[in-house]
């Protein structure tokens, strides 16, 4: 085959360090736009970015030209630096060390878009930790609870 054809939808989830509620209404829209722009600049088309006070969700297409770990390192480092430039309240902003990345079937893309769009409503009923455990379990991922949170 002379071409490399790739279409990998990813639902990425990561939180603020120690799940601090630092993503407030005054910054969230700008942060989500910045994250989406950074995804696009790294060749990973952002489809939907959202989240809640202590975490973000990103649905994107992973480029065939960048490894997931490299992409995530650049995305988190750039956005953390960006947040720190937005006032004293964000001076000590950090993302958690890890992340979750889950493959999404093409037929499920709209479901994930709606899920990300409804984060505020969703988190009236479920904490981030419960949400994240549910993702890990539904994706049959093995994990050690001692190393999931930081």
Structural overview:
The protein is α+β, with helices and mostly antiparallel strands and 150 residues long. The chain contains five helices and four strands, in the order βαββαβααα. The chain is 37% helix and 19% strand. A four-stranded antiparallel β-sheet has the order 2-3-1-4, with helices on both faces. The protein is globular, with a radius of gyration of 15 Å. The mean pLDDT is 95.
Number of DSSP helices?
5
What is the ordering of alpha helices and beta strands?
EHEEHEHHH
Global mean pLDDT: 95
Q: What strand order characterises the main sheet? A: 2-3-1-4
Which residue ranges are poorly predicted, with pLDDT under 50 across at least 5 consecutive positions? none
Global Rg: 15 Å
Tally of DSSP β-strands: 4
Report how far the terminal alpha carbons are from each other: 44 Å
Strand content: 15-25%
The main pleated sheet reads as: 4 strands, antiparallel
Helix fraction by DSSP (H/I, runs of at least 4):
25-40%
Which shape, going by the Cα principal axes? globular
Structural class: alpha+beta
Oligomer: single chain
């Amino acid at each position: 085959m002379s071409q490399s054809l790739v279409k990998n939808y990813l639902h990425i989830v990561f939180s603020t360090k120690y799940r601090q509620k630092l993503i407030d209404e005054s910054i969230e829209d700008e942060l989500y736009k910045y994250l989406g722009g950074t995804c696009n600049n790294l060749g990973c088309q952002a489809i939907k970015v959202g989240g809640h006070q202590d975490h973000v969700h990103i649905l994107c297409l992973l480029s065939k030209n960048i490894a997931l770990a490299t992409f995530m390192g650049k995305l988190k480092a750039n956005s953390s630096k960006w947040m720190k430039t937005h006032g004293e309240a964000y001076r000590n902003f950090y993302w958690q060390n890890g992340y979750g990345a889950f493959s999404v079937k093409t037929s499920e893309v709209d479901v994930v878009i709606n899920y990300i769009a409804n984060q505020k409503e969703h988190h009236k009923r479920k904490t981030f930790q419960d949400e994240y455990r549910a993702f890990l379990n539904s994706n049959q991922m093995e994990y050690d609870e001692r190393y999931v949170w930081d």
